[in-house]
Amino acid sequence: MMDIAAAIAAERRELADLLDGLPADAWDAPSLCAGWRVREVAAHMSLGFRYSLPRVALELVRARGGLHRMTDRCARADAAAMAPAELAAALRDNARHPWQPPGQGIEGALGHDVVHGLDITVALGLDRRVPEDRLLVLLQRVTPRSLRFFGAALDGVALRADDLDWSYGTGAPLHGTAQDLLLLTFGRRLPPGRVRGEHEDRFVLTRAA
Question: Is the pTM of this model over 0.90?
Answer without folding.
Answer: yes
